[in-house]
Amino acid sequence: MTDQTAHRTAVVVGHGMVGHRFVEALRARDTAGEWSVTVLCEEALPAYDRVGLSSYVGAWDHKELALAGNDYVGDTAVTLRTGVRAESIDRDARVVTTSDGAAVPYDALVMATGSYPFVPPIAGHDLDRCFVYRTIDDLDRIRTCADAAGPGAVGVVVGGGLLGLEAANALKQMGMTPHVVEFAPRLMPLQVDEGGGAVLAKLVTELGVTVHAGVGTSAIAENDHGIDVTLADGSVIDAALLVFSAGVRPQDALARTSGLPVGERGGILTDIGCRTEDPAIYAIGECAAIEGRCYGLVAPGYSSAEVVADRLVGGTAEFPGADLSTKLKLLGVDVASFGDAMGATEGALEVVLNDAAKGTYAKLVLSDDARTLLGGILVGDASAYATLRPLVGRELPGDPAALISPSGEKLGAGALPDDAEVCSCNGVDKGTICSAIAAGACDIASVKSCTDAGTTCGGCLPTIKQLLAASGVVMSKALCEHFSQSRRELFEIVAGAGIRTFSGLVAAHGRGAGCDICKPVVASILASTSSEHILDGEQAALQDTNDHFLANIQKNGTYSVVPRMPGGECTPEQLIVIGEVARDFGLYTKVTGGQRIDMFGARVEQLPAIWKRLVDAGMESGQAYGKSLRTVKSCVGSTWCRYGVQDSVGMAVDLEKRYRGLRSPHKIKFGVSGCARECAEARGKDVGIIATESGWNLYVGGNGGQSPKHAQLLASGLDDTTLVRYIDRYLMFYVRTADRLQRTAPWVESLEGGLDHLRAVVCEDSLGIAADLEAAMASHVEGYRDEWRGVLEDETKLARFVSFVNAPEESDPTVSFDESGARKVPVLMGMPSVPVG
User: Is the dihedral of CA 165, 169, 174, 175 positive or negative?
Assistant: First the structure.
């Protein structure tokens, strides 16, 4: 439905990142409601993050890549048509004819058709096992072929540029063995020089990718089980599939057939206002040849989208040129290139620091007087990129060699002039960010909202943090009004001083009586540093409702009971007891996503009797109520499955028994998959373990929830002992350092240095605390006691399980259920009754 107040129509052909940006920009500027917008999207899916395409691998959930607001729900001025291609343009009538036969009139036509992958005319390029790497559909097709080939099969990528290395990373994540073939003498020839390319090749090779540089691909032919890829030097790669990633070409076919001029090397020719020869037609993004030049990066595409949006509402914006700087993490390797990276400027000088032993390469390109920064290249460590890139074209404030030396001076954001561009994706300079901070934006989220800085690639976030700090904004680390310390600092105080009570902690290091924020946090810390029962003494009064009754409260004030089932295993006898308990107490039962059984509808006074029967049957608390380990999900593994390569069930059982009862800042979930097919969905968990022929791959920092995150590879090819050792360190490091209610995914992101720092701590013991972390976990394992068994053995603890402390024999009269349908469901009578003991 189109807004009836609009009297002009803009038709957008293409709905990639730039097309979506244009729609957002026009809707934001069109305050008079003059324009309605029709978007023709050839793909079945609306706009998604094509820059982050490789992150689709593993989760295989296209929703994770979807751009915010890409469906325009609630915006009656925008009509989105997916799966519809623009077939022709009648420029005289100003009508677009679509693939479904519709005629769509326009007052302004915006071409945002992007680009298409270039496939070299090699013999065999059209075989079924040859693919391109451009869309989600492309990755789905590659995945099908990779799965059929099996783990470890060879995948060849033709092209060693940005997209080529991304494609190689995707194949590696699919369990394949990648080979990269690059015709140029080095990888990423447009971004890095010979020295940087050598370091990059070394780092990539160490990560399991075979590099063939300085050689072309001459032929592709089928064999009995896959394809033979013949290189120009006569060597042959026996592979399961091949991916072409040898560059892109502007998608200008529709413009050509419509008679619009194109550039010498393709692309729809436009002026500096992004308008074509036809005054009603504009071109933006990769398909546009702005004054004859095409730009293949998202930042200049966004700039062109903003220009056209401004023009359509009467503005005179012009394309400002493009910052072609890039900063990426390819196969886990940092690579950055900015300004005149190759030193093409006459008289340019180069300052180079090449540390092959550490795997880092840094080069600054300077003017002939060695004072002005012209560009640079960073490989292996790109931490200086955020402050160096905005200084391109300006006088350096320090010694160039010291600026790229690990032991030299480091530039802070304060060294940048106000007009230095901090966020190149959205064209936001330092002055704009500082003005937003001065106006009250006192955290990252506020700065993002006010300026759009940091909302695209996120590469400028470290600089924004520095500007916040430099502006005098103090981001409080206090847990609450009763403690000025952070959770991490309180953990260190409790562990170091041996404090075992909340009252002792608040008396020595806090103030007041505490609140519903600090009490559960301190209770968790006390539980994490000791094997005392959480309902012992003063501890009991600190717990929230769930931990107070060791059960999960439901919407009508009843509780659910979840016995532990390590790895999803349960004996027939235990299943019978669960069935009898559910029948006798009238509980609703459900098999959970974590491979165990949940029984709903228990009244608080029934909990001890229910748990008595479960404990007598050899079961224990599943701790579904706690900020602790919940489940270790598992597939059946090599014991039963014909694809399994390791005993995933056995590993899952061992891990769940090892880490059960571990109290932490938030809940923790594990997954163990017996092969790369990933039936246990391990990469959606806080700890994910995936079996390979050579051992276990360990993934960390994944979670579902409101902001789902894909777990990242921490270490690969681990034996059982090393796997457990690394998990011990990872979990205890998380327990000690995470903030209150912080899941592992945002915790990993919040670490200075992110995953790389975590890997150094866990795998390399960079902080020298590995032995301490392992000892802490060993103490937890040795001291574990089932919480419900502890309640049943203590009359004092049992006394708290009543609905009303002043009438212990009475049940809560507000609790009732509707059992008229197929399922028993709670009935709410006013507000749910939450018992307080």
Answer: positive
